[in-house]
Amino acid sequence: MTNPAHPGRMLFVNIPVADLERSKAFFAKLGFSFNPMFTDETATCMLVGEHAFVMLLSREKFAEFAKLPMADPTTHTLALYCFSVSSRDEVDTVSAAALAAGGSEADDAEDHGFMYSRSFFDLDGHGWQVMWMDPAAAQQGPEAFAASTQDADGTAEQHPDRRSAAAKIP
């Protein structure tokens, strides 16, 4: 992995939700936790990674920060939110939890061999993707990883239930 341009920098993504408590319950079922020091009746800070957070804000609170009209996430896509997990199995586990908690499937699973993902819409219609990437591919980059998995005869090694890592690189 490359060195960050700004080590220690934190990322806060703010998204509007119709019902804060309902959204907190939904994301808690997916395994997320919340920082109580940055949570009140209008907002909560969802912990995504060591330096990455999603602020779930009531629509009223979000409108205080937004300078433009708020779009309806059920009819307009302004962003897609993606987070990684530690295994292919965890992708399926988190996706199943999202569907069981009231989310809806956004797309079929995508399997690129070195990367596997599934997508869902949360209770407000925001698009989320949960993904796993082979650590070697994350370290080397997809093209170098694909080249490193080539057999001596130049063909890519195939896992029985996966496409070649070189088949489709996003």
Keywords, please?
single chain; four-stranded mixed β-sheet; 8 strands; 5 helices; 170 residues; alpha/beta
Protein model, in words:
The chain has helices spanning 20-29, 59-65, 88-100, 135-140, 142-148; strands spanning 11-17, 33-35, 43-49, 52-58, 80-84, 104-111, 115-121, 127-133. It is α/β, with parallel strands linked by helices and 170 residues long. The strands form two sheets. Strands 1-4-3-2 form a four-stranded mixed beta sheet. Strands 5-8-7-6 form a four-stranded mixed beta sheet. The radius of gyration is 18 Å and the shape is globular. The chain starts with 10 loop residues before the first strand and ends in a 22-residue tail after the last helix.
